Amino acid sequence: LLISVSNLCGKCRPRDTDLLQPSLNFLYWSLHQTTPCSQQRAVAVLLSNVSLLELLQKVLECTWLRSPPSGPAYLSSEDALLCSGWLLVASLLLYQHRYNTEVHQTLSVDLTEVLNAVIFRNKKPILLLVSIMQFLRAALRQNFSSSLLVIVGQNTAQGATQPQPSSLQDAALHPLATQQVFSLVVSLQNLLVHKDLLLSQAVVACLETLVEYLYVKNRDVALHVASQPWHRFLLFTLLSGGQKSFLQPEVLRLMTLFVKYQSSNIISQKEISQILQEAVEANLAELPEATSCALHLFLCQV
After folding, report:
1. What is the pTM of this model?
2. pLDDT tens sequence across 28-46
């Protein structure tokens, strides 16, 4: 069935949304909802299908060709297809690296367009933003060096408020530019203020992966990003809603990030004590799984 559906996708055009949408979703879930042994075979099947990969290339390119909606951002059938395409490609990047699967056709992605989609948003629906961030995370985790992915585009993202970086610093962060990094961080902070659960989870995960990438490439830049004073204001903003508890998954993960990179100007002993006190008073057995996992990571980091 996987072979049949992937062959069917390869015969479609990006505008065949009614057929492609459920087909790409089926391929995505076939990768995730299976045993490791079957997963490895599924990745090999999909990556050996050149027509499918060519179709995915066209779907990704449609992201930049579509004009933003004039009204409130909503998820059209075309946007839903783009979400499925980005999520499937992100998964293929992840599992191709995990199993070192042979690649028969590469995918070209303009990094500047990907970054600008997050930095400027342009009324993109939340689910599409989340899907693009999933792809960005996958590429960051592999240092943009996947054999499946070809990065194109110049480092020309605009909108940064930081001073022009040195060429040496840019070379260390390649293919990212320092200006792009600072613009991306500010945009991720702004997206967190929306307090949308799905968006918050994606933003925090992207921020975690970005700082890890920076720490390997240029430790000074990573520590500078992790210690931005705006992060502290952001934490208080996240805690200012109806649920003021520190035991929120996105808050705990942000706290873990700041503890990990020793951002003492962002998280102090007082906040750590408050989290520990809330954990003592909480019924741990009744905490949601996401909260339990985030609390576990925080305690381990502390």
Report:
1. 0.91
2. 999 999 998 899 999 999 9
